[in-house]
């Protein structure tokens, strides 16, 4: 578990690198399109959803975090965009999953996109719980624990997220994107 100040420092770093080669017009992006990365990203999102399905957010129970389809589409687009300038594309990524809950940031999983490839960059995906629902669900479950499923609570993720990219082969500064 990361303390709240760690999450805030991840989001407030002042330096950022530019992926100039990916800052292209829409027609130019078609030239950078990699069908293998598209398939790999679809598989990666399945793994992310499975990992979120058993997230260790509490000391006693695991939570089932639900990723709405619009959020998954946003994450997919951002992962592909960040991977387009990398030597191995998305195959060279390490993905760390974190979820903000209140002021705490919980580490919920680490995924090597392609374990056979030496990683060239690390992405930290920071998702947030939908705070509009959490107090209501928390109150309901506290009042009637029998309503909570055996595998833990099911909680929906908020539409926004933060992604931090760190190149592992370069000393360039971090790139932090708030979506």
UniProtKB/TrEMBL annotation:
Residue ranges, annotated region (Disordered): 1-20
Pfam families associated with the record: RTP801_C
Gene Ontology molecular function terms on file: 14-3-3 protein binding
Alphabetical list of InterPro entries matching this protein: RTP801-like, RTP801-like_C_sf
Keyword Cytoplasm: yes
GO biological process annotation, one example: response to hypoxia
Keyword hit for Mitochondrion: yes
Subcellular location per the Swiss-Prot or TrEMBL entry: Cytoplasm; Mitochondrion
GO cellular component, one term: mitochondrion
Transmembrane region(s): none
Keywords: Apoptosis, Cytoplasm, Mitochondrion
Main location: cytoplasm
PANTHER family: DNA DAMAGE-INDUCIBLE TRANSCRIPT 4 PROTEIN, DNA-DAMAGE-INDUCIBLE TRANSCRIPT 4 PROTEIN DDIT4
UniProt similarity note: Belongs to the DDIT4 family.
Name the UniProt record assigns to this protein: DNA damage-inducible transcript 4 protein
Species this protein is from: Nothocercus nigrocapillus
């Amino acid at each position: 578990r990361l303390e709240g100040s760690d999450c805030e420092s991840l989001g407030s770093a002042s330096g950022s690198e530019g992926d100039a080669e990916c800052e292209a017009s829409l027609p130019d992006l078609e030239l950078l399109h990699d069908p293998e990365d598209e398939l790999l990203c679809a598989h990666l999102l399945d793994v992310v959803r499975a990992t979120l399905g058993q997230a260790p957010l509490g000391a006693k129970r695991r939570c089932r975090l639900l990723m709405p389809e619009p959020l998954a589409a946003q994450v997919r687009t951002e992962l592909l965009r960040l991977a387009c300038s990398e030597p191995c594309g998305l195959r060279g990524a390490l993905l760390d999953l974190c979820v903000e809950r209140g002021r705490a940031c919980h580490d919920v999983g680490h995924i090597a996109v392609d374990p056979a490839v030496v990683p060239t960059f690390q992405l930290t995906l920071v998702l947030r719980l939908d705070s509009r629902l959490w107090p209501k669900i928390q109150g309901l479950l506290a009042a009637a624990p029998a309503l909570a499923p055996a595998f833990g609570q099911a909680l929906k993720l908020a539409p926004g997220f933060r992604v931090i990219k760190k190149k592992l082969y370069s000393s360039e500064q971090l790139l932090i994107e708030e979506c």
